[in-house]
Amino acid sequence: MNDISYIGEHLWVGQVGHFSIILGFVAALLSGYAYFVSTKNREHDIIADSWRKIGRYSFMVHGVLVITLIGVLFYAMYNHYYEYSYVYAHVSEDLPLKYILSAFWEGQEGSFLLWMFWHIVLAFFVVKTSGKFEAPVMFTFAIAQAIILSMILGVHIPWGDDALRIGSNPTTLLRQMNDAPVFANADYLSLIKGRGLNPLLQNYWMTIHPPLLFLGFASTIVPFAYAFAGLWLNDHKEWLKQSLHWSLFSAGALGVGILLGSLWAYVALSFGGYWAWDPVENSSLVPWIIMVAGLHVHIVSINSGYSRRSVYFMYLMSFVMVLYSTYMTRSGVLGDTSAHAFTEMGLERQLIFLFSFFGIIGLSLLLYRYKEIKNPEKEEELASRDFWMFMGSLILLFSAVLITMSTSLPVFNKIMAYFNPAYEGRVIQDPVEHFNKYQLWIAVFISLLSGIAMFLRFGARNWEMQRKKLYRRIPIYIGMSALITMGTSLLIEYYAWQYWVLGFATIFAMVSNLDYIIDKFRTKFKMSWAALAHFGFAMMVLGTITSGLNQKHISTNPFVFREIFSENDVKRYVQLIKGQPLFSQGYLITYVSDTLEDRERHYKINFQKLNDSMEVVESFDLYPNSMYENDFSKVAAFNPDTKHYFGKDIFTCVVSLPPTLMSMEEARKVEDSIKYVSHRLMLNDTLHIDGLVIQVDTISFNPSNVDYKNHEHDAGVEVVLSIHDTMSDKDYTLYPAIGLEDALMYNYPEAIVEAGVRIKLGAKMLDKYFTPDEEMAFQDFTIKNGESFSFNGYQFHLDGFNRNPQHSNYDAEAGDLALGALLSISNGTVEESAEPIYVIRDKQPMSVKSYSPKTGLHIRFSNIDPEKEVFTFKVAMDDRNDKAVELDIARDIPRTDYLILQATIFPAINLFWVGTCLMLFALLLAAWNRYAKSRK
Amino acid sequence: MSRSLIISFILIIAGIAVFISASKDVSTYANFKQAAQGGKVKIVGQLAKDMPMVYDPQNTPNEFEFFLNDDEGVVKKVILHQPKPQDFEMSEQIVVTGELKDDVFNATEILMKCPSKYKNEEIEVKGDVSSL
């Protein structure tokens, strides 16, 4: 099959891609080797310098090649080169251009490239600023780049019976990956279409969240590389001074990445929350926690020389945990325990190698140097800031260990199953409860520590003075916090004593840190970033109590049988029928209307807040939407809409729709199953069925049916029906219509959903437009140009002729002699024009009828007498009022005018967002200050 | 004895304590036989495709009934107290969390494993597009 020469392929993309990958991999290895030699020879300036240059230039070549690869792959995606499997798998014709970036990093290969891209950007700054640490730090960079690049190497090495596959090349051709019959066709490209981006990911969050998260992931390599360099050079002081801003930046960037993820989940996805302790979320949180722990001990080590070993351990582990999380989310090991891991790529062994390589090398080196990393002789003072910061870091590490252990349960299961195939995998029964239970205490300890430790000094300097200050202030903080906690309990339910403790601890931390900020405001504002970060942290945790613990479902249905399910869970969903308000939890909720825009259908939901005397206090609309699959075959996703207040959010999301609206297939099935019964009625007749009285009011040839207006038809007829429902004593008017476009018939049924009835016009109604000529009485009129005649009250005037007549029923042929007669028609109220055509083809006369659906006039141009200059017209008219109305009526049709809604109040959720933002802002601000300081 | 040693000791004890108490949160997937002993469990199984599925959103939007075939081949009725999940029929494997009561499994949570559309190996060919 390789003999086929395929049409339209752009093979250069694959060639450039392949070349870049291979050469980029080699360049990274060379760079690593050069930097290694340079570090080894650091005592000999000239040798070290020249090797360092080689390392630097090789890394530059590597960087250029990786960016080239990104460029060509992006180019191929932008131009829909479906011959490439990665392009085929991630873009499609109907994917809007703005989502090409999202499609780029939707797949594993693209996100590895994104990761490497950030490493290259960071390396640029590291080379510029690291001075004598360049060689050992960049050695780690280069090796990491080589190993990550190997994930997309796409090399197959014969290994026993199997080929050992190293990486998956994103510029592999689709026909090399698949063996489908379509490739037998040389022009297969004209036959295939891309699979496109998962509709769930088609929003701007997918454009911003991954790059920022990967910047965070990538940035953890810098502290790792510095720590590694420190161990290697056996210099445990210098790098600590030089690199604190990198750790602060890393904690800030990774924090922003995680925050955006949880904002995405909350704002745009139907998760109904911002954190779910999902394994994917956890595995990005753990490196962040360790990084934060690391930067605390880092600060201690700079200020008093303690905790250096811990700094090494934390920074090594933070990066290793990023790699471990890569393994967790990309190898498929999470299986059914996570809602959103990557699609598998079959690189499990390579991913295990990735984290074990750095883990083992890093930790062995730490062990090897352990004794040489000296701490000050004397132990830390109990009353020193150093000691308590170290304690805080330990607690954070403890938290990270707990989360990792629980999240790694699937890995544990896999290992056990490897040794004992009969082993049954374990799962956590209720992950959210499990994590909350333990992490709550971590948050309590951290809050309390961060509230007190700020008032201690490094090395317990000035302890006597500090003690007085502390003993005076702490009781005040405790008293104030206790009061505030009691106060908040009027607004927040604390439910259990543990939450009381947590609430108190966070408020305590907020009070004391705020006081610290105010205290330092005038003198050293720049130094109070730590207090600001702690304040933000405490506020964030308090926000989880208010919005998580206290969330209320407005959509709780009061009519569920609570006796069965009282202990299990609250009913979160409620059914809303269009136009029928529902009262729940102080709100009157109405589903008003829905509109379709592109592939999204927006539902207008009106909320009216009522006070005790049932008066409307406030009214607002929310527009949650549903999103169709790219081909409209079914609903792919629901997106929420949220009303934001200062003190709370009202979150709504459609969770389900009537089956017929959920999928086309279902709609077709239901439509096929509906039984219509035909009824023949005369104008003004009434029909009685099942309590309905149906009367035919008028027949109109200008349909007013809402849907009808969307189409320009050749002709249409509509019947106006008055219907009285004797059961509910309600009156309705329906406008079923039927339209004709060329030979296609369009039916516009109408329904009364409350009564479960649907009515459409019978196909026989269309006979009105197809009345055969022989059934009609044509009258002849012979006139001259410019003269008139009258018929059935209509005046016909011959205005002139058209020598090139056009008509949908007339296809001009060479040799035709055709003449269109221009007639204006009027009966005083209706003004119309008609152009019947007289044709002589092959010496045979024929005429093309002009028909006016409005008036029902059939006009033929039947003869021309050239001698007398007279023209003959045949005119007839439909006998419209005489015809009966054909109604097809179906009963018991399923309703389609409702939706299932979730509406939840998140009280004081802004505490969470604002707190998180403050904390991250403080981290980034500190990173900047530290960087500025290190430059001086 | 140095302070850091005491601290590490405390942390290790705390770790062990957490580990022991957390082991209660963890268990294997159960089957209907084990669920009959009461308590909240996770059951893994397949949708019994020959049995009816009932979802009547007009009257009970929060209830979806189906039959689940557990690992041992026992089939029981499950009432999921949620709207019917999307692509439910396509699921290869279902994990439900809940309790067995009067021979009916009342589930509050569901996780499905579906053959992802974005994973399939077939090459889609133009022309099979259906539109509204």
Main sheet strand line-up of chain B: 2-4-5-7-6
Total number of β-strand segments of chain A? 34
Structure class of chain B? alpha+beta
Mean pLDDT of chain B: 78
What sort of overall outline of chain B do the alpha carbons produce when their principal axes are compared? elongated
Compute the separation of the termini of chain B in Å.
77 Å
| SS summary, helix count of chain B | 2
What do you see in this structure?
The complex is a heterodimer of chains A (936) and B (132). Chain A has five domains: 1-202, no CATH class; 438-550 and 909-936, no CATH class; 562-656 and 899-907, no CATH class; 664-765 and 885-890, no CATH class; 773-877, no CATH class. Chain A contains 23 helices and 34 strands. In chain A, the strands form seven sheets. In chain A, strands 6, 7, 8, 9, 10 and 11 form a six-stranded antiparallel sheet that branches. In chain A, strands 15, 16, 17, 18, 19 and 20 form a six-stranded antiparallel sheet that branches. Chain B is an alpha+beta fold and 132 residues long. Helices cover 18% and strands 33% of the residues of chain B. Chain B has a five-stranded mixed β-barrel with strand order 2-4-5-7-6. The longest helix of chain B is centred in the N-terminal third of the chain and has 20 residues, at 3-22. Chain B starts with a helix and ends in a 19-residue tail after the last strand. Classes of the chains: A alpha+beta (936), B alpha+beta (132). Chains A and B meet through α14, β3, α16 and β5 of A and α1, β1, β6 and β7 of B. β3 of chain A pairs antiparallel with β1 of chain B, so a sheet runs across the interface.
